[in-house]
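Tutorial handout. Part one gives the primary structure; part two gives the three-dimensional structure as tokens.
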Amino acid sequence: MKLWMLSVAALVVAVSAPARAADLDNLLPKDAVQVFNFNVKQVLESDIIKKYALGQIKQAMAGKDAKKMLDELGLDPLKDIESVSGGIWPDEKNEKEMHGVIVLRGKFNGEKLFAAVEKAVEKEGDKISIVKDGDTKLVKFVLGKNPALPEPVYATMADDKTILIGTDKKLVMESLKASDDKAKPVIKSELAALVKEADAKATLYVCSIATGKIGEIPPNPIIDDVEKLKEQLLKMESSVITVRVGTDVQVEFVMSMKDADAATDLGDTIKGAIGKAKSLLPLLAGAQPQFGPIVDDVSKSMKSSSEKKFVKMSVKVTGDSIGRVVGVNE
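Part two.
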């Protein structure tokens, strides 16, 4: 999936707690043009998950196969995983292929994890293996024909609270060294500035700086002129998505443009697209009536604006509507 499409795809959810600036992660690579952080602990403790999903999650984890696997890994996903963050960038020659480092933070049992890996190697040695770089053990994964990932992918533990996953062994080792040395963050200054402004208490934030490239935008009924939109997006300097999950779900996407004129131009295109989208949403509700409450929320709340050099989009889905869709509030 192309980088700008990754950005457009995220959700933002409103919470009442005041925002706190995000910290820079010193384990992320210098080549990253997009940084994200998913607060797993926060979303699992949110009202929406507790009301409408936690029971199903626990039931799935209690299944015989799932329980056996988690016991072997020494892992309780509901308690042991705190966050997943990463820094990624597209390949220079193939923009569909992504490179980067993913950082899992929480509480991990290294002995059990590596024992589980060794057991997996015996069964699927063509897909998973253990390799060494000096004294460091890394797990090598061959994920199959995934166009978004190079082959293979490497993982190792920095400590019992940190797992590193990278699209190249060298990237993992550089992050491991940064962890050992407690090195300063090395991500690009313009990306660092975006991260510093992100809300650390949010469920998810995605900060991206423009690469000067726009991938193919498929024809669709809400965009009149795809080529014009591509030209407008080339004037985007950066974007920030923030996701907060609480009692409701709200989406906000903020783009920083080259100047105020570029923001106005793109803003007009987006307003037109939103207008068309709203006219089509009743058709979706008619075809999938079970999603009617969510479709209604989206239609009522979806909006955009442009001010100075910024273009903003937002949408909100209430917890009550989600409950009606999953049948809890009936």
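Part three, for discussion. Residues 3-326 form one domain. The first helix runs from residue 3 to 8.
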